[in-house]
Amino acid sequence: MRRWFSDYLDLFAACGRGERDTASLLEYYAVPLLITTDDGFFGLTTDDQVVAAVQPQIDGMRAADFDHSDVVDSEVTVLNSTSTLYRATFSRQRRDGGEIGRFTATYLVTDGPEGRRISVLAVHSPQAG
Questions:
Q1: In this structure, what is the dihedral angle of CA atoms 44, 50, 54, 59, given to the nearest 10 degrees?
Q2: Are 25 and 121 in contact (CB under 8 A)?
Q3: Among residues 84, 122, 94, which one has the least CA distance to residue 13?
Q4: CA distance 113 to 64
Q5: The domain that contains 29 carries what CATH number?
Q6: Helix 47-63 with 2-16: angle, nearest 10 deg
Q7: Cβ atoms within 10 Å, residue 22
């Protein structure tokens, strides 16, 4: 699971640097995809909705001169033979080595007919970090 997630982070970073198209993340996101943040809960039921939901984040990373994300802390919890929780705190880094910001998220990764996919992305409140 950690290697799969590392591959996802590499692709996400490539998108954030402008080297890959945001739609390439569909290799890792399930459709439907559920996202929950302090701003609300979103059930995304099409590829276009998933890409549209992620695009503003990618645009912000590109504007901030993003380079990569460091995993500060992570935990993997196997729920059953088809589902795993991956919880991590990330530090987003600029090309100059400065930190853009930190956040904690929990991902429900499921293993279905198309392989492993992120089915739920839950971004933690800063105080719940």
A1: -130
A2: no
A3: 94
A4: 37
A5: 3.10.450.50
A6: 70
A7: 19
| Whole-angstrom distance, CA of residue 65 vs CA of residue 67 | 7
Going by C-alpha positions, the residue among 57, 43, 4, 45 that lies closest to residue 27 is 4
- Of the chain, the end-to-end C-alpha distance in Å amounts to 22
Range of the domain at 15: 2-128
Helix (H) or strand (E) holding 114: none
Q: Which two tokens stand for residue 104?
A: 């904690």
Scored b (16 or more CB within 10 A) or e, 26-46 reads bebbbeebbbbeeeeeeebee
pLDDT band at residue 126 under the 50/70/90 scheme: confident
Give the model confidence (pLDDT) of 29-39 as tens digits. 999 999 999 99
Output the CA–CA distances (angstroms, integers) from residue 1 to 85, 86, 98, 108, 123, in the order listed. Answer: 10, 8, 28, 11, 19
Q: What is the pLDDT of residue 128?
A: 56
What is the number of structural domains in the chain?
1
